[in-house]
Write a structure and sequence with these properties.
Distance between the termini: 21 Å
Shape: elongated
Strand order of the largest sheet: 2-4-5-7-6
Order of helices and strands: HHHHHHHEHEEHEEHEE
Helix content: 55-70%
Structural class: alpha+beta
Length: 434
C-alpha cells in the first residue's frame, strides 16, 4: 500500500532516477557500438555484416534519443510522461536488436528483463507490469512473424519452420513471457520495499536530530517549569482568598478574573513543559488504533467550529494495536487533526490513513489541504515555544514529538506551501513476532 506522500518528493526522486537511466542508456549505446565494431567484419557486403550495420544504426538512434530525453529532463516537466515514453520506446529498440541479431536465435532477449527492472525503479509495480506486457506482446509477435516467414531476420539462419515446430515456438514464447512477468513482480516488490526503507530511514534520521536537539534543554526546561508552578499555585490561591474576603465588584472583580484565568493558563503551560521532558508511560495499555481514531473523528465531527467546513476521510486498516496511554494517544490525534483543520481556510479535507504494510511497523498519516508550512519555518515546528499563531504557546507539536519518542515511535512531516501538509507517525507493532 502506498503511503499518501506528497508528489514533490516523488518527483524529485523520479528526476534523479531518470537522469541515471538516461546516462546508463547512453553508456549502453557506446558499449554496443564498440563491441559491434570489435566483432564485426570490415567488409559490410555479407548478410551477417548487414546485421552489424543495423546495430550501428540502432546505437546511433539510442544516443540521439538519449539527447532528446536529457533535454526533456532539463525542463523538469511531465516527468512521468518522459518515464513511460522512454521505457516503451526502449522495448521497441530491444525488439529491433533481437530482430537484427537473429530473432528466435538472438542472445539479446535478456534486454527485455533489464527494461522491466528499471521500469519498476521508476514507476513501481504498475509500470513494471505495463512494460512486461508490452515486451511480451512484441516478442510473441516477432517470433510468430518469423515462423510464418512474414519477416526474415537479417542473419542467415535456417528456416525457423524447418528447425523447430509450433510447440517449441509456443514453449519459448511462454517461457519468455513468464520471465517478463516474474521479473516485473519481483522487481516491483523490491522497489516498493526500497521506497519504504528509504522513507523510514529519512524519518529516523530527522527524528533523531530533533531528539538530540531537544534533549539538551529538557532538564533545564523541566526544572524551570517546576520552579514556576509553585509560585503560580500560591498566587492563584491568594487571589481566590482575596475575592472571597473582599467580594469585589465591577472593575476589580473583572481584573481578578483575568488574573485567575491567566494564572491557570500559565499553570497549564508549566504542565505542558514538564510533559515535554517526561511524558511517562505508567498508564500504557493495548489500544485499538482504528477505534481510537474513529472516536476522535466522532468528537471532531460534532465540534461546531469544524464539522461544517472540514471533511475527514479515513482509510484505516483494522486490528492494529499499540501500547500507549489512552490520554497520550488522544492528545496526539486531537492536536494533529486540530492543527490540520486550523491550517485550512474555508472548506477543506483531512485524510487519515492507518496501515501496516510489513506488520512490523504501523504507519499513521494525517494529510490536509491547508496552507502548508513555509520552508523557513519547517525546521523549527517541533521546537518548544516556536509558533506562527498569535495565541499559540508553541508547545503542541513539541509535546507530540516527545510523547511519540517516549513510546519508541517516530514522527515526520512533508509540506507544500499553499497545498497542504502530511504528518507521518511510525509505531512499533506489539503483536509482531520475528
Amino acid at each position: 500500500m502506498d503511503s499518501p506522500d506528497f508528489l514533490f518528493r516523488r518527483i524529485r526522486e523520479l528526476y534523479r532516477q531518470i537522469k541515471w537511466v538516461v546516462l546508463a542508456r547512453a553508456v549502453f549505446a557506446l558499449i554496443l557500438i564498440f563491441s559491434t565494431l570489435f566483432f564485426s567484419d570490415t567488409d559490410l557486403t555479407g548478410q551477417r555484416d548487414q546485421s552489424f550495420l543495423s546495430l550501428y544504426k540502432i546505437s546511433g538512434t539510442i544516443l540521439g534519443l538519449s539527447l532528446v530525453y536529457f533535454a526533456w529532463l532539463c525542463k523538469k516537466k511531465y516527468l512521468y510522461a518522459l518515464a513511460y515514453t522512454q521505457i516503451l520506446i526502449d522495448t521497441v529498440i530491444v525488439t529491433a536488436i533481437v530482430f537484427v541479431t537473429g530473432c528466435f536465435h538472438s542472445i539479446f532477449t535478456f534486454l527485455y528483463l533489464l527494461v522491466i527492472i528499471y521500469a519498476a525503479m521508476l514507476l513501481l509495480v504498475q509500470g513494471s507490469f505495463a512494460v512486461a506486457l508490452a515486451s511480451s506482446i512484441q516478442y510473441g509477435f516477432l517470433i510468430e512473424l518469423e515462423y510464418l516467414k512474414i519477416i526474415i531476420p537479417l542473419p542467415e539462419n535456417p528456416d525457423l519452420a524447418l528447425v523447430v515446430d509450433q510447440h517449441h515456438i509456443l514453449y519459448r514464447i511462454v517461457i519468455t513471457v513468464s520471465a517478463c512477468f516474474a521479473t516485473a513482480a519481483l522487481s516491483g516488490i523490491l522497489s516498493l520495499q526500497l521506497k519504504t526503507a528509504r522513507k523510514d530511514l529519512k524519518i529516523a534520521q530527522e527524528h533523531l536530530k530533533r531528539v538530540e536537539k531537544m534533549a539538551a534543554v529538557d532538564e533545564i526546561v523541566s526544572g524551570i517549569a517546576h520552579e514556576i508552578k509553585n509560585p503560580l499555585a500560591s498566587l492563584s490561591g491568594s487571589i481566590q482568598m482575596l475575592r472571597e474576603e473582599m467580594a469585589p465588584t465591577g472593575e476589580s472583580d473583572k481584573l481578578m478574573q483575568i488574573i485567575l484565568r491567566e494564572t491557570e493558563r500559565l499553570k497549564q503551560i508549566a504542565t505542558d513543559i514538564r510533559l515535554i521532558s517526561k511524558p511517562g508511560r505508567t498508564n500504557a495499555e493495548l489500544i485499538d488504533l482504528a477505534k481510537a481514531i474513529d472516536d476522535v473523528k466522532t468528537l471532531f465531527d460534532n465540534t461546531p467550529d469544524w464539522y461544517a467546513r472540514i471533511n475527514i476521510v479515513t482509510r484505516l486498516e483494522r486490528d492494529l494495536y499499540i501500547n500507549m496511554d489512552a490520554v497520550h494517544l488522544q492528545q496526539i490525534l486531537w492536536n494533529l487533526i486540530k492543527n490540520a483543520a486550523e491550517s485550512i481556510e474555508g472548506k477543506g479535507k483531512i485524510k487519515i490513513s492507518l496501515y501496516s504494510p510489513r506488520h512490523k511497523r504501523i504507519y499513521l498519516t494525517i494529510q490536509d489541504t491547508g496552507l502548508g508550512i513555509d520552508k523557513k519555518n519547517a525546521p523549527h515546528i517541533f521546537d518548544p515555544f516556536f509558533t506562527t499563531k498569535g495565541d499559540g504557546t508553541g508547545l503542541g507539536l513539541s509535546i507530540i514529538h516527545r510523547i511519540v519518542d517516549a513510546y519508541e515511535g517516530m514522527i515526520d512531516f512533508e509540506s507544500i506551501p499553499g497545498k497542504g501538509t502530511v504528518f507521518t507517525l511510525i509505531f512499533q507493532n506489539p503483536n509482531f513476532k520475528e
